[in-house]
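Running this now, will post back.
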Amino acid sequence: MGYTFTIGELEVIKSEGDGLDCPCISFGAKGISLKGSPAFGEPTDSTNERWPSYCAWSDFLKDVELYDVFYSDNHLIGGHPGIRLVTKDLQKIVSQRLIDFKTKHPELKPIFDEENKHAGSLCRLIWLDYWIEWALINCETPVIANT
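Update: finished.
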C-alpha cells in the first residue's frame, strides 16, 4: 500500500450519470510525461507522478527535513486521498531543502541504492523540486494530489 502523488494542474473529476444518486465530483491533478524531467529508473520516470509506500514517503520527508511541511499530527496535509495547492512559499522551502541536502551530502549521486537511503531521498527531492517549480510556471491552479 502507498500513495500516488501527482503534481500539476487541478483536475475536476465528475462521476458518470446525471441522476440524483450520482452527484459526486472529486479532485486530482492532470498527469503528464515530459521529456527531460527527472528519471531514476522507476516506472514513473519522466512523469509528474510517484507511487511511494507510506513508509518510504514518511522516511524521505524526515530525511530531508520536510516532514512538518507535509504532515500535521502524523496526518498527511490535504488528506489521504486529498489535495493541496502548490505555492511559491512551498517551492522556496523545497528548493532550500534540496540545496541544504546536497550541501550536507556532497558525495551523493541521484540513484536509488538499497545501501544508502540518502541517495533515494536525493532522487525524490529532485523530483519534488522539479515538478513543484514546473507546476508554478505552467499551471493555472497548481496542486499536489494524493490519490
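The CA atoms of residues 113 and 121 lie 10 Å apart. More later if anyone needs it.
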